[in-house]
């Protein structure tokens, strides 16, 4: 989290949100990268409370995210239920010291457990179920219409992180120009109801639990109107970058193809593949590099970047400069 936002998050604000949702004072912080995420409790039962600063999302954006999640839940997807506050609101707001806002939501804790990319469970069977879950989500989203009073979710190109001049080093014009060329190419892709709609936007292995039978997806903060193929590319991207070092290019390509084949096999059980997906995947792999570089540059100050992170950022920057995806698609 940016230091300016961190300075605004106080114990008083956390306790006020706990009171608004009728929760006990005991909390366990689970994350604070883009949102503050806590495991919280009511009568000993665990819930997930997420607090979002207004510099990251508006209240309307949080409400649109929750509305889409409830639609997916109504279609049988294993998406966390969203619970109202004691006042009946799905999103609560508390002002910070500088008059900016924090928005709070309360979710059911997902069933199952996290799967490490290095565990035995990170295998072809999981990749198929991952693909099937994604396909079910895309099929369900085709029938989604925002509820009364809910503002339409933003589209992919409204993401401030695509303003690369703002988040890339000022002396890296080649990096900026290459990123903008990829973004421009994606902007020209055709759209229709079978290849474009609201997607999760970040279904990597850190954003779902697995119970051995079913995948339970959470963290819908990145949801936007986007090409469905991007939701195929992002699991592929993170599975490669988390598991295989950049020095092992041949292994990245081998593993990436294994993952993609199994993921697509599962996807086809739930939804038809979007037209042009295979040609689009490399573009969305490059787009993920562009966005990830921007978010790391924004969220982590230079003095807080360790050697491993600096190496990763330079690896990503080299691919952006060369307009090269993280793997070659067969």
Summarize this structure as a short list of keywords or feature phrases:
alpha+beta; Phosphorylase Kinase, domain 1; Aminoglycoside 3'-phosphotransferase, Chain: A, domain 2; 2 domains; 10 helices; 10 strands
CATH architecture of the largest domain: Alpha-Beta Complex
Form type:
globular
Number of helices: 10
Strand content: 5-15%
CATH superfamily descriptor of the largest domain: Aminoglycoside phosphotransferase (APH), C-terminal lobe
Under CATH, the topology of the largest domain is which?
Answer: Aminoglycoside 3'-phosphotransferase, Chain: A, domain 2
> What's the end-to-end separation, in Å?
38 Å
Radius of gyration: 20 Å
Tally of discrete structural domains: 2
**N-to-C order of helices and strands:** HHEEEHEEEHHHEEEEHHHH
As a percent range, the share of helical residues equals 40-55%
Number of strands: 10
Please write the CATH class name of the largest domain.
Alpha Beta
> Which structural class fits the helix and strand makeup?
alpha+beta
Low-confidence stretches: none
Rounded mean pLDDT is 96
Largest sheet: 6 strands, antiparallel
Q: How are the SSEs ordered, and which strands pair?
A:
Elements: H1 3-6, H2 11-20, E1 28-31, E2 36-42, E3 45-53, H3 59-74, E4 82-83, E5 92-95, E6 101-108, H4 124-141, H5 164-167, H6 173-187, E7 196-199, E8 208-210, E9 215-217, E10 224-227, H7 228-243, H8 249-267, H9 277-299, H10 307-322
Antiparallel strand pairs: 1-2, 2-3, 3-6, 4-6, 5-6, 7-10, 8-9
């Amino acid at each position: 989290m940016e230091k300016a936002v961190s300075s605004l998050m106080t114990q008083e604000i956390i306790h006020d949100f706990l009171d608004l949702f009728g929760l006990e004072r005991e909390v366990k912080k689970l994350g604070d990268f883009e949102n503050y995420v806590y495991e919280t409790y009511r009568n000993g039962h665990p819930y997930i409370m997420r607090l979002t600063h207004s510099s990251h999302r508006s209240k309307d954006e949080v409400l649109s995210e929750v509305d889409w999640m409830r639609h997916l839940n109504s279609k049988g997807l294993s998406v966390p239920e969203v619970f109202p506050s004691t006042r009946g609101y799905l999103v609560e707001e508390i002002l910070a010291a500088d008059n900016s806002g924090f928005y709070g939501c309360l979710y059911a804790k997902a069933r199952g457990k996290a799967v490490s990319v290095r565990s035995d469970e990170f295998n072809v069977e999981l990749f198929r179920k991952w693909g099937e879950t994604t396909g079910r989500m895309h099929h369900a989203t085709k029938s989604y219409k925002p509820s009364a009073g809910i503002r339409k979710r933003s589209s992919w190109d409204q993401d401030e992180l695509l303003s690369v001049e703002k988040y890339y080093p000022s002396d890296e014009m080649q990096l900026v120009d290459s990123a903008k060329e990829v973004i421009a190419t994606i902007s020209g892709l055709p759209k229709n109801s079978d290849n474009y709609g609201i997607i999760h936007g970040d279904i990597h292995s850190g954003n779902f639990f697995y119970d051995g039978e079913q995948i339970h997806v959470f963290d819908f903060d990145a949801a936007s109107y986007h090409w469905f193929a991007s939701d195929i590319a992002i699991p592929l991207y993170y599975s490669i970058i988390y598991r295989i070092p950049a020095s092992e290019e041949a292994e990245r390509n081998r593993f990436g193809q294994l993952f993609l084949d199994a993921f697509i096999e599962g996807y086809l059980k739930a939804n038809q593949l979007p037209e042009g997906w295979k040609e689009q995947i490399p573009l969305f792999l490059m787009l993920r590099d562009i966005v990830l570089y921007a978010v790391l540059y924004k969220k982590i100050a230079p003095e807080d970047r360790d050697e491993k992170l600096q190496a990763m950022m330079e690896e990503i920057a080299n691919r952006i400069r060369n307009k090269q995806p993280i793997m070659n698609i067969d």
